[in-house]
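User: These chains co-purify. Model them together.
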Amino acid sequence: MTFIDIIGSTLLGATVIVAIMGLNLLLSDSSRQVGSDLNVQENTVEFTKSIQWDFAKIGYRDTTGAPILVAKQDSVVFLGDIDNSGSVDTVRYYKGLPEELTWTPNPNDFLLMKEVGNASQTMQMNIGLTKFQLTYFDSTGGVTADPKLVRGLKIAAVVQSPYATVDSVYSGAYWENTIYPRNLNVSK
Amino acid sequence: MSARVQYILILGAMMLLSQLALSVSGFILGMQDLSYDNEANLAATSLAQSVLREVAAKNFDELTINKKVVSTDSLTTVASLGPDLGETYPAFDDLDDFNGHTRTIATDRLGDFTVNVTVNYTTSALLGAPSGTRTFLKAAIVTIYGNPYLAQNQNVVMNTIVSY
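Assistant: Joint model of the two components:
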């Protein structure tokens, strides 16, 4: 075996090892990315279940005739018996500030707060929301900001992973839904 | 072992390695496609639900808005299902105004989705399929398509039946 053979085979061997290591790294990054995407998508679905359950009950058992008390882009306060207990609850949903969610590396995520009754019963939903935007519609389908005229509301949300994956990108999922609660009598 | 045999063996090994690299790359791309497809399906399903809710929340028929109807002969004819004269989205007042309605919905992460709505009379036996005569049941079919992240030729279709 000549000296050139030894050098050549060493170089070739090193190249093969580097290529295999590269592939391994790529595979590991990819599975981390896909796992993170899947987590975000699952979180989004769980979040949507909770939101749809509560918002569909806006006005349930309300006798005031005006169950939406506050209709803002980042918060809503409404009346409705969301737990079917027989008594009407005052429910408030509002977005927290990104500064309040310091224990995740994602600088854009915030908590979604849900208050039932009073501030002592605040539930903090940490699902990685980076957008939570409400739009309200009147009976003609036009956008309105007047709580008394609201017949439907659209929730647009983006959920992101707490940790960046490959290339400092956060996994994310977009969800939007328009809900026309039965007790708001949209067609009237 | 002669030098020629060694060269052939090295060439063979490199080809096997290249094949492995290609397989792994294909697998990774497939996983990423699947992830995007999942996200697009999630968004498309929520959009379809939204549109169905919007349609179902409207009055049953133009002719039932201000009065009660007891005969199907008093409803809008099958041929006239669609927006009434002068009605444009979003100011639709009954659910069959959405028949033939198409619009594009923009989303934050995945771009545009196109939505198409079809509304027809149906019967409990037809389970949403079009009826040639007027009935007290209308079926609304929402189709979401036109987004590059949805798997090729895949539409998200959801439907509901609304009764008077």
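Chain A has a mean pLDDT of 90.
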